Amino acid sequence: MNKIISDEPAKWLEKAKWYEENEEWLEKSARIAIKILHELRAKKITQKELADAIGVTAQYINKVVKGGENLGLETICKIEKALGINLISVPQFESNQALFNGHSSMSVNINRNNAQPIGSEKHTYHNKSKYQPERETLAKGEMLLA
């Protein structure tokens, strides 16, 4: 009787785990792929023509439009320019300035190396700022924060 079960471990479990771990960017990559394919068809541009326009191989564009390629910002920008579309957008905001007390500003430093999702654990705020509020002297030596 022939063996039906292999002695080698199943690779499907390994692959399924990888997909689960990379679900967020794979989902975004698939959406980008759909948009690129739509634009290529609408503008009657081949994958080879897009590849030539942005300086990559047709095989690479084929991987991109299958939705499994982890695209870098440089590649995304080249595709956007070549197709005249917007694939991603970043909301504009002032991340380095926070209004303090109506007329002063202080820097906000965001350490992205050890970033954790908001609410993932309790954190204590430590003010390392050299900013010291100006004090106004009142009658009889009383102090008031400006």
Précis, in short:
This protein has 146 residues and is mainly alpha-helical.
What does this entry look like structurally?
It is built from five helices and four strands. It is extended and about 55 Å long. The longest helix is centred in the first third of the chain and has 20 residues, at 23-42. With 146 residues, it is mainly α. The termini are far apart. The chain has a domain at 11-83: Orthogonal Bundle (434 Repressor (Amino-terminal Domain)). A hairpin with a 3-residue loop joins strand 1 and strand 2. The strands form two sheets. A two-stranded antiparallel ribbon has the order 1-2. Strands 3-4 form a two-stranded antiparallel sheet.
Task: Sum up the overall morphology in one term.
Answer: extended
Mean pLDDT equals 75
The overall strand count is 4
Structural class: mainly alpha
Q: In which range does the helix fraction lie?
A: 25-40%
Corresponding CATH superfamily of the domain at 11-83: lambda repressor-like DNA-binding domains
Query: In order across it, which strands form the biggest sheet?
Result: 1-2
CATH class term of the domain at 11-83: Mainly Alpha
How many angstroms does the end-to-end distance come to? Answer: 89 Å
Quaternary state of the chains: single chain
CATH-derived topology of the domain at 11-83: 434 Repressor (Amino-terminal Domain)
Number of helices: 5
Q: Which parts are unreliable, with pLDDT below 50 for 5 consecutive residues or more?
A: 131-138
Q: Report the C-alpha radius of gyration, rounded.
A: 27 Å
Strand content: 5-15%
The ordered H/E elements are HHHHHEEEE
Identify the CATH architecture of the domain at 11-83: Orthogonal Bundle
Sheet with most strands: 2 strands, antiparallel
